[in-house]
Write a structure and sequence with these properties.
Shape: globular
Strand content: 25-35%
Catalytic activity: Hydrolysis of terminal non-reducing beta-D-galactose residues in beta-D-galactosides
Number of domains: 3
Pfam families: BetaGal_ABD_1, BetaGal_gal-bd, Glyco_hydro_35
CATH topology of the largest domain: TIM Barrel
Protein name: Beta-galactosidase
EC number: 3.2.1.23
Keywords: Glycosidase, Hydrolase
Structural class: alpha/beta
C-alpha cells in the first residue's frame, strides 16, 4: 500500500498521495509554522482535556464530554488502550465499552475536536501501560524495533487504524491530531521504532497532524522526537523550560498539564489547588501555548485495570483515577472546573455551553455482609489449569491476565523449617491444609516459618497480581511466581495451578473469616453511589456481577465509585472476595472519601 501522506518536519507542506480508487479527502485540519498551530491558515489554540473512554461507563460518555465542553475545552484527548481491546491474542473487540469509534463520534456531536493517542504504549497508570500481557509475556524488548514486537503492533494497527481513518477531520470527522508514541524519551532510544510507528500511521491513512509527548529535558526530547511529528511536553510546572526546548518552527503545547495526580495504595491522596493549576495554565496561555489538562475527568480503574509503578518497591495504583480533576469521578464539577472555564472563555467567539447540574446520588444506607464461602472454598471450586508442572508457572504461562492464581502441592518438612518464595509478583496468602500460615509480599516478607514440629500436608499459595507496571524499565514484567518455592534450601516440585475467575463467586456455604460474602440493597431509582467497606481488609467487589475494583485498608481510597448504569430498580447484589479478613457490612455513601490528602504540583 503506498504512503498516503508525506509532510515537512514543520507541518507546513502536506502532500496527499492516494490510490486512484480512494474517496477524495480534504486537507489536514491542523499544521504548524513559525511557532504557531494553524487551522485553515489561521492561528489556533488547542484547549483540551483528557477523558479516557475505557475509564468511563459508556452510558456516561456523552455526559462527561458535555461537561468538558462546558469547561471551555475545544478538544478531548484520549488514549487507546490496546490491552482493553485485545485481551486474548487475535480476539480484537470494538463493541460495547470498547466502541472507541462511538466515543469519537460523540465528541464530534458535542462540538469537540479529538486529539487521539493510539500509541502501543500509553502509560496512563493503566495495566502494563496498555500493552497486552500476552505480548509482554513473549517479547523481551518492548517498545523497540524487535521483530516480534513490531509484528504484534502492526497486526493491532491493521485492525485499529482503518476504523479511525474515516473519523479524521480531513474526512469530515473530529480527529485533528494523532500521537505517535508516549514519553518515549524517558524510556528508550530506538529511532527506527519511532519511525516505524510514524510511517505506519501515514501508510494506513492517518493524514492529520502527528505529535510526540515527552518530559522537559533535552535528553527526553532528543530521544522521543521523530521527524514529521510536532514535539509536545508533559509537566505540572515548567512553561519557560518547555518554551526553550521547542524545536525550530514548532508551536508550544503541553499535551499533559498535570492538574492533579494519581494515588498508590498506602500513600496519601494527591491534590493540587485550583490556584496552583490555574497559574500554570495561565502562564502557558500567556506564552501563546496550547494545553491538554491531564486529567480533565479521570474516571475509574474498573475491574483490575489499575497499573503500578516501581521505585525501589512496587507501588500499585488504587481503583479510583479521580486525579483531583476538574470533573470528578462521578461528574461533580469542582473549583478547578470553574477556574478553567474562566481561563478558556476568552478563546471562544461565542458563549460557552451552560454549566451542567451536579450529579444526583443515592441516599446513604448500610447492610450486613453475609459470608458464603471461605477463601479455600473459592480456590477448591476452581478447576486446575493444564497438567501439574515441576516448577510454579507464571501468570503468563497460565494465560492469566491479572487477579488471583492458586499454586498447590503436597509437601513434607522437618522441624523448624522455613518456606521461601523466589520472585513473588506480588502477594501470596499461604495455607497448609486448612491452616492459614501468613502473607508474603514481593518487597516485604518473602520467607515464613512452617509449623515448628515439622510434618507435611497440602501447601496452597494464593498469589495476587496487584497491578502490572506501567512506567519505566520494569514495564511488561511478569506476574505470579517468577522463580521457585523452597523449603530450606531445596525446591518444592509438583505444582497444580488454578486461575481464579474474575467473576463474582457464587458459592453457598458456611463462610469464614476470609473469602466471599454477599449483601443486597433495594433501591427505588438507579443513581450514582459510593460503596464503603469500613471494617473490611483487602478485597474485590462486584455490583450486580460487574467487577468494580479493589478496596484495601491501607488506604488512601475508602470508597468505590458505583455509577448509576450499574444499578437497577429493586434488588441489587454486592459480592465481596476478601483475602485478609471479611468485614461485617457494606455502606452506600453519598460522597466519596479518598483519604488523607497531600499537595502535588508536579515538575
Amino acid at each position: 500500500m503506498p504512503d498516503l501522506l508525506a509532510s515537512a518536519h514543520d507541518g507546513s507542506s502536506l502532500a496527499v498521495v492516494a490510490p486512484a480508487s480512494a474517496a477524495p479527502i480534504g486537507a489536514p485540519a491542523l499544521s504548524w509554522r513559525d511557532g504557531e498551530i494553524l487551522r485553515d491558515g489561521v492561528a489556533h489554540r488547542i484547549l483540551a482535556g483528557s477523558i479516557h473512554y475505557f475509564r468511563v461507563h459508556p452510558d456516561l460518555w456523552e455526559d462527561r464530554l458535555r461537561r468538558l465542553a462546558a469547561m471551555g475545552a475545544n478538544t478531548v484527548d484520549t488514549y487507546v488502550a490496546w490491552n482493553f481491546h485485545e485481551r486474548v491474542e487475535g480476539d480484537i473487540r470494538f463493541d460495547g465499552w470498547r466502541d472507541v469509534e462511538r466515543f469519537i463520534r460523540l465528541a464530534g456531536e458535542v462540538g469537540l475536536d479529538v486529539f487521539l493517542r493510539p500509541s502501543p504504549y500509553i502509560c496512563a497508570e493503566w495495566s502494563n501501560g496498555g500493552i497486552p500481557f500476552w505480548v509482554s509475556g513473549r517479547v523481551a524488548a518492548l517498545r523497540t524495533s524487535d521483530a516480534d514486537f513490531l509484528a504484534a503492533v502492526d497486526a493491532w494497527y491493521d485492525e485499529l487504524i482503518p476504523r479511525l481513518v474515516p473519523l479524521q477531520a480531513s474526512h469530515g470527522g473530529p480527529i485533528v491530531a494523532v500521537q505517535v508514541e508516549n514519553e518515549y524519551g524517558s524510556f528508550g532510544s530506538d529511532a527506527a521504532y519511532l519511525a516505524h510507528l510514524s510511517e505506519g500511521l501515514r501508510r494506513r491513512g492517518m493524514v492529520e497532524m502527528l505529535t510526540t509527548a515527552d518530559g522537559i529535558t533535552p535528553d527526553m526530547i532528543a530521544h522521543g522526537s521523530v521527524p514529521g511529528a510536532m514535539t509536545t511536553f508533559t509537566f505540572g510546572t515548567g512553561v519557560p523550560v518547555a518554551a526553550a526546548l521547542r524545536r525550530e518552527g514548532e508551536a508550544l503545547m503541553c499535551s499533559e498539564l498535570w492538574g492533579g495526580w494519581f494515588d498508590h495504595w498506602g500513600e496519601r491522596h494527591h491534590v493540587r489547588s485550583a490556584d496552583s493549576m490555574g497559574g500554570t495554565v495561565r502562564e502557558l496561555l500567556d506564552e501563546g501555548g496550547s494545553v491538554s489538562l491531564y486529567m480533565a475527568h479521570g474516571g475509574t480503574n474498573f475491574g483490575l485495570w489499575n497499573g503500578a509503578n516501581h521505585d525501589e518497591v512496587l507501588q500499585p495504583t488504587v481503583t479510583s483515577y479521580d486525579s483531583d480533576a476538574p470533573i470528578g469521578e462521578d461528574g461533580t464539577l469542582g473549583e478547578k472546573f470553574h477556574a478553567l472555564r474562566a481561563l478558556f472563555a476568552p478563546f471562544h467567539s461565542g458563549e460557552l455551553p451552560p454549566v451542567p447540574p451536579q450529579p444526583r446520588r443515592q441516599r446513604a444506607a448500610s447492610t450486613a455482609l453475609e459470608p458464603v464461602a471461605s477463601l479455600l472454598d473459592v480456590v477448591r471450586a476452581t478447576p486446575a489449569v493444564g497438567e501439574p508442572s515441576p516448577r510454579p508457572l507464571t501468570f503468563e504461562q497460565l494465560g492469566a491476565e491479572d487477579g488471583l492464581a492458586a499454586y498447590e502441592t503436597e509437601v513434607s518438612f522437618p522441624e523448624d523449617a522455613t518456606l521461601t518464595v523466589d520472585g513473588l509478583h506480588d502477594r501470596a496468602v499461604v495455607f497448609l491444609d486448612d491452616r492459614r500460615l501468613g502473607v508474603l509480599e514481593r518487597d516485604g516478607q518473602t520467607t515464613l516459618a512452617l509449623p515448628v514440629e515439622g510434618g507435611g500436608g497440602r501447601l496452597t499459595l494464593l498469589v495476587e497480581s496487584l497491578g502490572r507496571i506501567n512506567y519505566g524499565p520494569y514495564t511488561g514484567e511478569g506476574k505470579g511466581i517468577m522463580g521457585g518455592v523452597m523449603i530450606g534450601r531445596r525446591f518444592v516440585n509438583g505444582w497444580t495451578h488454578r486461575a481464579i475467575p474474575q467473576t463474582a463467586p457464587d458459592l453457598v456455604g458456611s463462610g469464614g473469616d476470609d473469602g466471599a460474602a454477599v449483601a443486597s440493597f433495594d433501591i427505588a431509582e438507579p443513581l450514582d453511589a459510593w460503596l464503603a467497606f469500613p471494617d473490611g481488609s483487602k478485597g474485590m467487589v462486584w455490583l450486580n456481577g460487574f467487577l468494580l475494583g479493589r478496596y484495601w485498608s491501607v488506604g488512601p481510597q475508602e470508597t468505590l465509585y458505583a455509577p448509576a448504569p450499574l444499578w437497577r430498580e429493586g434488588r441489587n447484589e454486592v459480592v465481596v472476595l476478601d483475602t485478609d479478613g471479611l468485614g461485617s457490612r457494606v455502606e452506600i455513601r453519598e460522597r466519596p472519601s479518598f483519604g488523607e490528602t497531600e499537595e502535588f504540583i508536579g515538575s
